[in-house]
# Entry
Amino acid sequence: MTAARYKPPFLAVKSAAACLSAVCCLSAAPALSGPASPAVIAAPATAASGAAPENWDAWLNYQKQRESNCVGPFDTLDPPARVTVAGRRFVISGHRMVEENQKGKTEVAYGVVSTLKEAAPGTIYNLKKFIQWWKSKNVDAIIVGGDIANGEDAMEKNLLTFARTGTPVFIIMGNNDSRGQFNRAVRTITWKYHNVFNMNMIRFFDGDGADIMSLPGYYDRQFTRNTASCLYKDADVDAMEKLPPLANSPLLFLTHGPPKMTKPTGIDVIHDKSNVGDYKLTEFIKGTKGKINFGVHGHIIEAGGRASDLIGNPVAPGVWAPQVFLNPSQGDSFPWKMLDGSTNQGMAAILRINVKTRKASYEILRIGPDEHADLDEDTYANEFDELEELRRGRK
# Structure
């Protein structure tokens, strides 16, 4: 029997308010084949990266104990967890992670995507194409900027797709992700795949060439899905003041939503031409006195696929600039009308940071309008059977 053709529902052009509130180098990886839990079972002795982690069960339990948290506290894991991913050694001490034996990289490349929202065949297709592109460009890590999926099962599918790359994956939750579902889904995947790092919990990463600090969730309650969503507060922003001084390399700020800008070309502009980013983030960035010049901020889909400086002056793809705040738009395959009138069915980016010049540059990959035509609901039906094993392991 022939499977029904997969047709993602078209999202009508939204008003400004509706647009905001809509439930809205890679190592060789295996090919894709297609209530609170009890104590964590011991993780597999060998990580998916091919190296045995140390104290990984304690790291899983650290996350389990904070499963309902939105913004991770500045707590400590002692002794720390240690894991090797793609030949790189990471030490996780609770809210901080450090890359050991740094070699003094002069340029760092990140594959960047945000706003996935579901795991329909079209979105899985997008993720696989993005991963292939990132691999061809030798990215050092993948950044996933929130709105992983609506529902734990879909979250697990998207996370597993990233985890199977074998490269470091830095991930936060957005305005639509449930705190408990997100944190459980990450634990489910990382019981076996030790290359996915929950940046809700890890608030600062000291990496080779560049550092990352994170703030998960969103600032405006009216655009969160329900009480289980992650709503950060002004106090959470203020508490981050201790993080920028830790940076000894160019610092990347990872959030789901953008800072508030003032120009019509900013990455926080919606269809009514207003800037809707968080002014508190803007003031925080300014207060670091030049420490934060690079950021990844999604959420405002229609303004995505581009970057700007902090006030919203545009930065063109391929241009090396001293300030680059990047909005990768959506990785989701559901059609969305962009500010330029075009229809977007999936975008991702590569962000490069030059350590010596302290400038950054980016490029965008956009999914074509007909690329999902041959997909149906069964296209990836058997690719996630492994999740049953991972769920049993987590419990």
About this structure: The mean pLDDT is 89. DSSP finds eight helices and 18 strands in the chain.
